[in-house]
């Protein structure tokens, strides 16, 4: 397990960048680059990360960055990876770093193509559950009931399950993470870096201005997302599904906190009725029943 002391002191994301106070994406990118190190190339589509890096020729990110069109980060990373392989360079990590808009929606076709070809890259989706950079519009990753500027009475559709869409592509590695558990995230980045092929990490990134909570509560909101079961932490390694230790304890329903504790801290859910909160709780409980079924199926396969 990665320890805090294992992370190098060298910073590859400099202070003074343009992220909002309490920004989970900046914190996660800082940790991510500490794990991967300077031999990393980032491909960043239109998103918050493309803004906070600053303007050429200066940058807050101290690794090479290729800024790419919204839909094409996975395609561009595929080309970079193949070019490096052609040059005999297997010591450089190619990373697509994108938000949920560029992943769940606009970039999904390119991601699917890269995954189907098993291109050698790490793809990280930092999921703040809306198009935050352009005005908090709903995305396919916005959860049911959430306010955005385009769902002012609450979104009526469910959140798109991108990790399981990628699981259907049979890629070597998939993980979910949350920035409120940074060492779990760092461990998963380290594991992904040790493998080859298309590796995908889906990172929950609570956004203070978009989710309507005070900046000092970023970590607490993320913790509650996990502790209520709204966000399960897991890995799929070469097709084998496994819950991360933090979430494994929540198989016992009595250990999950009520979803209301998570929802009530966020202004984007302030309009919900008791019935709607109850419906979200039922959705969470149903998702954990599916997780239990997946684990039981996995155990049966392991015994064969």
Keywords:
304 residues; single chain; Rossmann fold; 8 strands; alpha/beta; eight-stranded mixed beta sheet
List strands and helices in order, with pairings.
Elements: H1 24-36, E1 40-44, H2 48-52, E2 65-67, H3 73-86, E3 93-99, H4 101-105, H5 108-116, E4 121-127, H6 162-167, E5 173-178, H7 182-193, E6 198-204, H8 208-211, H9 218-227, E7 234-237, E8 240-243, H10 245-248, H11 259-263, H12 274-303
Parallel strand pairs: 1-2, 1-3, 3-4, 4-6, 5-6
Antiparallel strand pairs: 5-7, 7-8
Short description:
The protein is α/β, with parallel strands linked by helices. It has a single domain (4-303), classed as Rossmann fold (3-Layer(aba) Sandwich).
For the record, the count of structural domains works out to: 1
Total strand count, please? 8
What's the helix count?
12
Global geometry? globular
Describe this structure in words.
With 304 residues, this protein is of the alpha/beta class. It has a single domain (4-303), classed as Rossmann fold (3-Layer(aba) Sandwich), CATH 3.40.50.970. The chain is built from 12 helices and 8 strands. The chain has an 8-stranded mixed β-sheet with strand order 2-1-3-4-6-5-7-8, sandwiched between helices. The longest helix is centred in the last third of the chain and has 30 residues, at 274-303. The protein is globular and about 60 Å long. The model has no long low-confidence stretch (mean pLDDT 96).
């Amino acid at each position: 397990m990665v320890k805090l002391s294992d992370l190098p002191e060298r910073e590859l994301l400099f202070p003074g960048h343009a992220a909002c106070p309490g920004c989970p994406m900046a914190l996660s990118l800082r940790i991510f680059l500490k794990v991967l190190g300077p031999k990393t190339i980032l491909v960043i589509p239109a998103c918050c990360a493309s803004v906070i890096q600053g303007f050429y020729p200066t940058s807050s990110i101290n690794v090479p960055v290729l800024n790419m069109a919204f839909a094409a980060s996975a395609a561009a990373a595929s080309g970079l990876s193949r070019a490096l392989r052609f040059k005999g360079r297997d010591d450089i990590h190619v990373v697509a770093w994108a938000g949920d808009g560029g992943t769940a929606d606009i970039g999904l076709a390119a991601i699917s193509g890269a995954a189907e070809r098993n291109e050698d890259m790490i793809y990280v989706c930092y999921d703040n559950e809306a198009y935050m950079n352009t005005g908090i519009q709903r995305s396919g990753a916005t959860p049911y009931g959430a306010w955005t500027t385009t769902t002012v009475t609450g979104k009526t559709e469910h959140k798109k399950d991108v990790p399981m869409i990628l699981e259907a592509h049979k890629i070597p590695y998939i993980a979910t993470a949350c920035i409120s558990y940074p060492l779990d995230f760092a461990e998963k980045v380290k594991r992904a870096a040790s493998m080859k092929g298309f590796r995908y990490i889906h990172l929950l990134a609570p956004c203070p201005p978009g989710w309507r909570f005070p900046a000092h509560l970023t970590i607490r909101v993320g913790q509650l997302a996990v502790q209520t079961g709204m966000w399960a932490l897991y890995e799929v390694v070469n097709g084998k599904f496994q819950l991360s230790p933090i979430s494994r304890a929540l198989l016992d329903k009595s250990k999950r906190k009520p979803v209301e504790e998570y929802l009530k801290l966020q202004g984007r859910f302030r309009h919900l009725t008791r019935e709607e909160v109850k419906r979200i709780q039922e959705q969470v409980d149903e998702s954990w029943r599916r997780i239990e079924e997946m684990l039981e199926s996995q155990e049966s396969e392991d015994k064969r």
